[in-house]
Design a protein that fits this description.
Number of helices: 17
CATH class of the largest domain: Alpha Beta
CATH architecture of the largest domain: Alpha-Beta Barrel
Strand content: 15-25%
CATH superfamily of the largest domain: Aldolase class I
Distance between the termini: 31 Å
Helix content: 40-55%
Structural class: alpha/beta
């Protein structure tokens, strides 16, 4: 690869090239751009996994028995009603939803009627496009044929299955409630229900996980033929059981060198099996990228509903309370005030840093023309100057549109507006935190 070159001589725009928008026009456009995606947080789990710091409520191992379509867990039924109340407080934009994602928690603890009710309220309030991607996170062992068939009839057409590992002892070490047999049965149910678009989640870097066992997990995942795979490296979060028990890089956790090799192994194995490494942690068969998550990575607006959920609407990023009591009280206030969320607009610098942090996660990278239109030529010059040493190391590259590689932007491209800045796979992705730290330091001084 020929590295990013310095930008001292980067050519200026001519009359025939797009001019960068003013700060005022960019802010105005952002404020009036409406979301077409919605995330809904379903916070209930049978138990808390040892690595989890998400806002959840533990309901125990009893299966949620249904009586006339209403869960016997009164807390779940109550939450669904409050969630739907929140949805109704938000004014419709006139644009139907293109993606809906129910995450958790364990959304598969919802009954079919509860899920259908949520989707019905969303459709009434915003409209759901006929070709919308409607995803739900599900855990093996938490659903049966009747349930998944009902979910599909309600509109679900994509499932993210929380597998995490294929070895019984590793699952137990994580605090997971399912077994390897449950995984096989869950995938069989998805296939029987006709849900071909499903993803499997795996976690690398788990306690007692070796390279050989990681290779076994990758092979087992491929054998189930998902259309999508998410590969996450274990993060020891404050306040979790793992944080009390382990220190990163100290046995029984793998070393940093081992987890880096696990990342490289996943990249080699999955791409050889026909999966595209389209985002740092995600792989997909052609045509099966997660449309909803791409909204996040491209820093587009979206609605967020439910306990602890974050929304990004009219230039404001807002997180809801993380306990049920506080969230319920907050929804009551929203009903009384007409659903208005008053907060400061994200600053120009913060929006730039968010765009860089999220967009560089994508294999396609960031379009230079869009960066210039959003943030101006001066910002682009600073970005390229900051990234220059990482281009020298082979971690970052600037490529022409439609090409796999190219010379540096001001030496090999006809116009910088036609290129992309991206991290190289796998080393650039592996060292993305180093690169992003440098960018944050560069712009935090503005």
């Amino acid at each position: 690869m020929e590295s990013i070159s310095r930008v001292d001589g980067m050519k200026h725009f001519t009359a025939d090239e797009p001019k960068p928008a003013t700060k005022e026009s960019r802010t105005a456009a952002l404020a009036y751009h409406q979301p077409t995606s919605a995330y809904l947080h379903i916070p209930f789990c049978r138990r808390r996994c040892y690595y989890c710091d998400f806002p959840i409520s533990v309901v125990g191992d009893r299966p949620p028995l249904a009586r006339q379509g209403v869960s016997s867990f009164g807390t779940i039924a109550e939450y669904v009603e409050v969630l739907c109340q929140e949805i109704r407080t938000v004014a419709a934009s006139g644009q139907p939803l293109q993606t809906v994602f129910l995450g958790g928690g364990t959304p598969s603890l919802l009954t079919v009627s509860q899920l259908g009710h949520i989707l019905e309220v969303l459709d009434q309030q915003f409209g759901i496009a006929t070709d919308a991607e409607i995803s739900i996170e599900m855990d093996p062992g938490t659903f049966d044929w009747v349930q998944i068939h009902g979910y599909r009839a309600a509109g679900v057409n994509r499932v993210s299955l929380g597998v995490q590992a294929f070895q019984a002892d590793l699952l137990a070490a994580c605090g997971r409630t399912h077994t390897p047999t449950d995984i096989d049965q869950a995938v069989a149910l998805l296939n029987r229900a006709g849900i071909r678009n499903f993803s499997l989640d795996l976690i690398s870097g788990l306690p007692h996980l070796t390279l050989d066992r990681w290779q076994e997990s990758l092979a087992a995942a491929i054998a189930l033929a998902p259309t999508h795979l998410s590969i996450y490296d274990l993060t020891i979060e404050p306040g979790t059981a793992f944080q009390r028990w382990y220190r990163p890089g100290v046995a029984p956790l793998p070393t940093e060198e081992s987890t880096a090799e696990m990342y490289r192994m996943a990249q080699r194995t999955l791409t050889a099996a026909g999966y595209q490494h389209y985002e740092i942690s995600n792989y997909a068969k052609p045509g099966y990228q997660c449309r909803h998550n791409c909204v996040y990575w491209r820093n587009r607006p979206y609605y967020g509903f439910g306990l602890g959920a974050t929304s990004y609407v009219q230039g404001q990023r807002f997180s809801r309370p993380r306990t049920r009591r506080d969230y319920y009280q907050w929804v009551q206030i929203q009903q009384q005030t007409g659903g208005q969320i008053d907060g400061p607009l994200i600053s120009e610098t913060d929006r730039l840093l968010e765009t860089l942090m999220l967009g560089l996660r994508l294999a396609e990278g960031l379009a230079i023309s869009e960066l210039v239109q959003e943030f101006g030529e001066a910002a682009l010059c600073q970005i390229l100057e900051c990234l220059y040493p990482y281009g020298q190391q082979g971690w970052v590259e600037v490529v022409a549109a439609g090409q796999s590689s190219s010379n540096a932007c001001n030496a090999g491209l006809a116009s910088p507006q036609q290129g992309y800045i991206r991290l190289r796979d796998p080393e650039g992705f592996l060292f993305s935190n180093v690169i992003l730290t440098a960018l944050f330091e560069q712009f935090s001084e503005m």
